[in-house]
Amino acid sequence: MTQFGSSSSSSSMVSLRAKKHKSKKVSLFCILSTLLAISISTLLLFLRFYDASTRSSALQLQQEHPEQLLLPTPQQRKTVQQLEQEEYMRTGRKPKGMDPHYSQRQIQKKKQAEQEDEEEEEEEDALLMPKEEKAFSNFAKVTRKTKSSVTNPPTTTTKPLRQKKTHFFQDFPPQEKSDHQDHVMPDPNPGAQTATTATAIAAKNINQNLRNKPYIFPKTITPLLHPTSAPLELFDAPTIHFMNISQVSMQDSFSASWFQRKQEFMDMPLDKIMICEDAAWEAWKSFPERLRMTVDVLDFSVEHLSKWWKFMTFWKTDVAYETLMSRLHTYIVRGKNYPTPPQQPMLAETLSMIAFQPYLHKTEQVRHYNLTVVSLAATIESIRRAQMGRVVVVGLVDNGQQIAQDAFSYLAKHVPDMTHTQNAHGIITHIGHLQVAYAPGSKTIAKSKHLAKNIPRTVLFGTRLALELGNKPKDQLQPNETEYVETWLGKGDPSYWKYLYLTEPDTLLNARSIPQLKAQADQGRVLAPHRLQPIPHESDLQGLANKFRYLNQANGFDHVWELDVVDEHDVCCDEQQGPDHKPGKTDFEDCGTWWYMCGFKKDFNDKSLGDVHERLRPYQFMKLKQGTGLTLLSGNLFGRRCFPAKKSFCKPPYVKD
Question: Compositional bias (Acidic residues) at which positions (predicted)?
Fold first, then answer.
């Protein structure tokens, strides 16, 4: 019994000690949990205070320093409830009275919108890519699911040129071969040897607050002299020459822009516009003999910017955003150097149409809004410089009128020498000689077979309807029809408009020798501008830490031509080798993206791969003094080359009319 009692007492002592030890553990856990909760609460309070102070500082900066290009945005006009909902989406803190299912629905909408945006971009790229690039793109989508696409990146070995393709102009007989069509030796005249002097441009630091810093180019540079150009001083008046259309491919003719008479526009088969690119192609696809493209790229071309800023992810890359905004702002400010002609502008009877889509993203809304407004303003300024008479911005978004007015106001504000006119409601209607307006497009017409939102389609249908209604006697129009005509064509005589120009809101026009361009349109021609492609270059992005995102000067990309389009008549002459000679594209394997961007892919940022930018070596680079000043490929988006030269003209290789 004693032994049993002793054993029982010992067991009780052990149990008591275990309970005390467990109690201490529980107490310690409670203390740690309390401290952790206090820390989290303190951190959340700090983040809330920091977010509020940051937003307050941004608004204060916008009010005190408008020159920083912070424009009024929809973000600043939102209600408290909308801000609370966005705060919840960003931080997870749920405001009182908020719909408990709001977050789930918004996240689903956000994912769906992002997926639609990606599909639209892929569809746009796919439509413009040649068949071999499409095939590789589809192949890459499959191989990216495995590690093989990383361990075995596409090679850059050269291969024989492909056989000549059949082009959409094949049924049109080519012009008689001229003496200049063959590749000839350089002009023996000594002036031809000195016509192209070594020139380069230092990136100007327009805004002192930016990170961009100027640099100095090497003093001795030997640029390539190409036999397609000759010194200007040997001739009195340079004449615009045009390519033989049999030497132009469908891709080469694309820039999403054209200039033509009203008669030719009314003949366009608008019912065939199924994709956005058709709005350009259908202007000459059914009438190939109408197409005209200049031999000198700088006679009629556009700088297309959106691919550059999308690649540079401007919404999160400070240097890219600041560079782009400062270049566009400077372009607009220089508008004072292009006053309204004392007599009637040569293209005053031209109605310009801009197929407008704002760049509004889920994040960094201020930057997207700023870029939308300033790029639209710069596009309109380029149209004003071309002496056209009216611009109609056509869009489908609900706040399109407000965005367009912000662009008009920005342009009027920063070109103070240019008078502007407002109506009784405070709406800007004129900037200098240029009429400006916004017209809402039809969402029903914008729906086509392949796209739910084909804005160029609704632009052209809407313009044609306005012109048709404008031909009717005014007393036969209904009040809503009269209002429609005045919105699109203005309050003057609708028959005043003789020419039309189509473009996009991120596309700056370069046009010189306007009388000769107009003369071509008067003969029933449709003029398609060359599409110039900006490319990331160190001179434009100094201060950007990731050197793989741009062409480095030390890597052989140090020479950039500075071309004066207006005062000195610099040129960039087509190579005259036809549509299949694209050495940076056809001589290499496909890489799954645009040919000129291959070397910037992550898979190519490896020294073991050799010269990742080998595709770009056959090309020169240039900046347009009267343009954005961004570095451009000397050629078009699809690899067709042109050769820059100073104070020159382009020899006529194909047609002389």
Answer: 115-126
Taking Cα atoms as reference points, which of 525, 521, 535, 441 lies closest to residue 488?
441
Examine the domain organization and report whether 266 and 367 are in the same domain.
yes
| One domain, residues 416 and 489 | yes
Residue with tokens 């526009």: 265
Radius of gyration of the chain from its Cα atoms, rounded to whole angstroms? 30
Neighbours of 303 (CB within 10 A): 25
Q: Count how many Cα atoms sit within 13 Å of the Cα of residue 345 in the half-sphere of its side chain.
A: 20
**Which of 500, 503, 472, 469 minimizes the C-alpha distance to 487?**
469
Same domain, 618 and 499: no
Predicted TM-score (pTM) of this structure: 0.69
Domain closes at, from 471, 505, 539 = 505
Domain assignment of residue 435, yes or no? yes
Q: Where are the beta strands (DSSP E) in 103-168?
A: none
**φ and ψ at 326, to 5 degrees?**
-70, -40
377: enclosing H helix or E strand:
helix 365-385
Tell me which DSSP letter residue 300 carries.
Answer: E
532: nearest Cα among 200, 301, 254 = 301
Q: How far is CA 158 from CA 87, 95, 148, 592, 614, in A?
A: 53, 61, 22, 17, 10
- In terms of domains, do 115 and 202 share one? no
400 and 263 co-located in one domain: yes
> To which H or E segment does residue 509 belong?
strand 507-511
**Facing residues of 70 across strands?**
none
Smallest CA-to-CA distance from 302 within 386, 370, 400, 226 is with 386
What integer is the mean pLDDT of 189-210? 28
Interstrand relation of 632-636 and 530-534 (parallel, antiparallel or unpaired) = antiparallel
Nearest C-alpha neighbor of 583 from the set 247, 227, 158, 226: 158
Q: What share of the chain is helix, strand, coil (3-state, %, to 5)?
A: 45, 15, 45
Q: Which domain holds residue 90?
A: 66-99
How far apart are alpha carbons 60 and 83 in whole angstroms? Answer: 18
Tokens of 81: 């409830």
In this structure, are residues 94 and 104 in contact, taking their beta carbons and an 8 Å threshold?
no
Pair 82, 182 in one domain: no
656 versus 451: the higher-pLDDT residue is 451
Q: What's the half-sphere exposure (Cβ side, CA atoms, 13 Å) at 311?
A: 22
Which tokens in the block code for residue 129?
């890519």
Count how many domains the chain has: 4
> 192 near 230, Cβ under 8 Å?
yes
120/227 same-domain check: no
Q: Which pLDDT score is estimated for 627?
A: 96
